[in-house]
Amino acid sequence: MKVVKESSDELNPSVLTTAFIGRPPRERTLRDYIALGVSTCGVGFIPLAPGTWGSALGVCIYLLVRAFGFRPTGQIGLDAGINAALLTTFLLLVIIAVSLAGTWAATRTETIIGRKDPGIVVVDEVAGQLITFVFMPWDSPAWMLAVGFVLFRVFDIWKPYPVRRLESLEAGLGIMADDVLAGIYAAALMSLLLSIYLLF
Q1: Four-residue CA torsion sign, 132, 138, 144, 149
Q2: Helix, strand or coil for residue 74?
Q3: Which residues contact 191 (CB under 8 A, 6 or more apart)?
Q4: Average pLDDT of the residues in 63-69
Q5: Entry pTM
Q6: Which end of the chain has fewer CB atoms within 10 angstroms, the N or the C?
């Protein structure tokens, strides 16, 4: 299917429904449905600020990882260090999995609906938001999470060099790459702010 030129208007759910469900039954596959589910993460259909909802989902996933894996003991020792290291490793594996699955799903979603970088694809925001929290202590207070959320949204919208240029990469790679870099920028700034906070 030919991918049409992107316009300034966001793709609304009704247009997607017509484009996707309207396909002949023989052309619909299980992979199409899986790709759509992964790329939109269930919140991409929200008509108001779907990217922000995708970032919020990233915060929720981070909190789930922390809730199920981190048990603060108030002690500084080997066990606490190992626990934090394992959790960070697990978070990195989650980020890699989301990024790889998102690249595939975003590419297929573009083909399904015939539009480049559709607004309903928010898996890139999920990955970028998770990257923002990589350097954060696992017992960070809620306000730090809020700061990380805002920082990522700022970089995602602002798109400083070379974030915007990565959008020109082909298909799902371009969709994911710019948000991954925006997440790295946000993580670096978050690390700097945390260091200043801890020192002073």
Answers
A1: positive
A2: coil
A3: 135
A4: 87
A5: 0.83
A6: C
